[in-house]
Amino acid sequence: MDSHDVQADLKHVLYTKEQIQQRIAELAAQIDKDYEGRELLIVGVLKGAVMVMADLARALHSHVSMDWMAVSSYGSGTQSSGVVRILKDLDTDLMGKDVLIVEDIIDSGLTLSWLKTNLESRGTASVEICTAFRKPDAAKVELDVKYVGYDLPNEFVVGYGLDYAEKYRNLEFVGTLAPHVYE
Ligand code: PRP
């Protein structure tokens, strides 16, 4: 879907398809360089990371393995609680592996903080994080994120994997939602 398909639901387009693809290509080039000569496993966190996993993996010039996790934060509403339940675990044994967790967004940072510690406890050689977007003003924990696409304002953002009530994930850009959609 492009901006014409959802024009009435949008406040602003924050990053266009072209800007996102350009940034993903830059991150991929950095990842290729940083992991040169090593075997990398990229781990996508369902469901939001599907878009960035697909684009990042194809922008890399190195072989990578891909695996997926699904996690759910305990608690109510849209707020992350930091207590995470694994809905789908990895198929891969992580012993000795270099792992890169790939996310669509880091909001409070609580989910990723838990996930990084969880994966590190499985005997990995390294665990780093790559996220398409981050909301710095929403951070509740300090989290070392090695690869960040773009920072976003602390507003209701949708697109490129980010949903509102499971819709808008398939926008090829990221934008803020008009208040009438969620009020
Ligand atoms: C989003 C995102 C992260 C988490 C970040 O997932 O993909 O996993 O929230 O929030 P935090 O930094 O406050 O912990 P969500 O739970 O919305 O699931 P989804 O990927 O299926 O949309």
From TrEMBL:
Named cofactor requirement(s): Mg(2+)
Reactions catalysed: IMP + diphosphate = hypoxanthine + 5-phospho-alpha-D-ribose 1-diphosphate; GMP + diphosphate = guanine + 5-phospho-alpha-D-ribose 1-diphosphate
CDD domains: PRTases_typeI (cd06223)
A GO term, aspect molecular function: hypoxanthine phosphoribosyltransferase activity
EC nos: 2.4.2.8
Cellular component terms (Gene Ontology): cytosol
Domain Phosphoribosyltransferase: 17-164
Name the UniProt record assigns to this protein: Hypoxanthine phosphoribosyltransferase
GO terms (BP aspect): GMP salvage; guanine salvage; hypoxanthine metabolic process; IMP salvage; purine ribonucleoside salvage
Family: Belongs to the purine/pyrimidine phosphoribosyltransferase family.
